Amino acid sequence: MGGRRRVTPGSDEDYTFVSPVVKYLLFIFNLIFWMISLVMVSIGVYARMMKHAEAALACLSVDPAVMLMVVGVLMFIITFCGCVGSLRENICLLQTFCICLTVIFLLQLVAGILGFIFADKARNKVTEIINNAIVHYRDDIDLQNLIDFGQKEFGCCGGVTYTDWSQNMYFNCNKENPSRERCSVPFSCCIMVKDKMVINTMCGQDMQELEYIEAGNFIHTNGCIDKLVNWIHSNLFLLGGIALGLAIPQLVGILLSQILINQIKDQIELQNYNLKHRFDPWS
């Protein structure tokens, strides 16, 4: 047994290396995140079903509902392995759970390091995503609400500048554009007055026809990318705390599952030892 406790057959048959504290703590840990994953999938499916089919397919890569469903399904599968594995003391499922958590943790770590090292390329990728979102602004209500929230929260308009909204077919400044919103920007670009009870949703009308300084009297003219970069630089401790908050549950899950796997292996070794020496008269 390599220094482990030797058990005399018939005297300690009920002895187990598996700690019920570790076992059920890991089960409850996974059960909580399993239920969270079900809620995420349900919300994603509901949001997806509420959209028109053609609109839902227009901007699939940045659809928040799809992202929610994908993350929810992955979390559901991983935590299901953890729940069943801990409850049934199944080494295969526990190892699958542990490996998946380890891979996800390492991917997050690598993504963070690469994002820091290749900040310029990451910025270009974010610019590409934002421009793509601007193009599909009217195609997806979830995407529209997300962009409006971001522009109001950061006090910005467009990707690099407010004229980026000309990339959208409804806001395009082309004279042949028949849209009533031609050369306009969304109302979320407007400088809001706090004491106004009613929001003027037409406040961005014809703003792209104005010069930068003149437009700045009515709307936020700076792009959201610079605002986002500045916000990240000024909230590094907050982002670090969020990253730590995401990493701790993963590390706890990895640690508990590895402890339980080792305990189950010890228990199997104990059972094999007892079975082998059950009828040994010298035991």
Shape: elongated
Order of SSEs: HHHHHHHHH
Biggest sheet character = none
Average pLDDT, rounded to a whole number, is 83
Into which percent range does the helicity of residues fall? 55-70%
What is the CA-based Rg, rounded? 28 Å
Alpha-beta classification: mainly alpha
Count the helices. How many? 9
What distinguishing features does this structure have?
disordered N terminus, 9 helices, 283 residues, 62% helix, single chain, mainly alpha, elongated
Structure in a nutshell:
The protein is an all-alpha fold and 283 residues long. It is 62% helix and 0% strand.
Description:
By secondary structure, the protein is mainly α. It is 62% helix and 0% strand. It contains nine helices and no strands. Helix 1 crosses helix 9, helix 3 runs antiparallel to helix 4 and helix 4 packs antiparallel against helix 9. The N terminus is likely disordered.
Topology at a glance:
Layout: H1 20-49, H2 53-58, H3 64-88, H4 91-117, H5 119-135, H6 141-154, H7 212-215, H8 224-234, H9 236-276
